[in-house]
Amino acid sequence: MSTHAERATGTGDRETARKILRELGDTWAVVGLSENRARAAYGVAQLLQTLGKRIVPVHPKAETVLGEQGYASLADIPFPVDVVDVFVRSELAGAVADEAVAKGARAVWFQLGVVDDDAYARTRAAGLDMVMDRCPAIEVRHLD
Asked: What domain count does the chain have?
């Protein structure tokens, strides 16, 4: 596993984060999002909505969150998604990245603390943009 310093330049730098936030679409599937307002996923999804993004909750409970219908899995979403934002443990994140590729997403975003170098390599090899161990709520502050 690479160190954080190596990842900062090698697996999803700030420019890639900017590109995903600005250019890669407005429909974000947020994997791990539930009605639990104390969880980071809820706050990030709320911020994404204020940026004009459509959020799609993905959680086994398939709850409606922030006014948006939830789905149990990425495969259950009946429309295209642009970005898959991943709020699950690192050991589960690789499977989500593979599902994002299968779904036809344009990018995958692994949240702070979510790291899987093999999943990063597979996702990039499939042609998707990806950042890992970063948060859109932090990265949005660096947009011009």
From this structure: 1
